[in-house]
Design a protein that fits this description.
The protein is an all-alpha fold and 135 residues long. It has six helices and no strands. The chain has helices at residues 11-20, 33-42, 55-64, 77-86, 99-108, 119-128.
């Protein structure tokens, strides 16, 4: 007999569930920001089940797992920066990352440079920050 999941309706039960497993948010009816935060703090990728997460929820998600940025729609520069500081390769999921985000990504993980589209501009930025770049 297949297991059936029921919606978790009250906030106290929702919090208890997502603290055990962030993905339990899938079964939470209209989760509050507190429930969303608890879910992404347990597993950053649980953000994919959050409807219109706030910037605070997005930040918590990428701080737990930088790759969670792939589920953030139009993340702010602060969210992008937090993601690449946690995981440099997360820059591949950032649309039009700022110079600051690009530099942070490469500082965190040198191979992230493969996702920088304008290398001449990047070299200029790095030089301004007194970082030696050769390619």
């Amino acid at each position: 007999m297949p297991v059936r999941f029921q919606a978790i309706l009250n906030e106290q039960d929702q919090l208890a569930a997502v603290q055990q497993n962030g993905y339990a948010i899938r079964y939470c009816h209209n989760p509050s920001e507190a429930v969303q935060l608890a879910a992404v703090q347990q597993d950053g990728n649980a953000i994919q089940h959050c409807h219109n997460p706030s910037e605070a929820v997005q930040l918590a998600a990428v701080q737990q797992d930088g790759y969670a940025i792939r589920y953030c729609h139009n993340p702010s520069e602060a969210v992008q920066l937090a993601a690449v500081q946690q995981e440099g390769n997360a820059i591949q999921y950032c649309r039009n990352p700022s110079e600051v985000v690009q530099l942070a990504a490469v500082q965190q993980y040198a191979h992230a440079i493969q996702y920088i589209l304008d290398l001449n501009r990047f070299k200029s930025i790095a030089e301004q920050c007194n970082i030696a770049v050769t390619f």
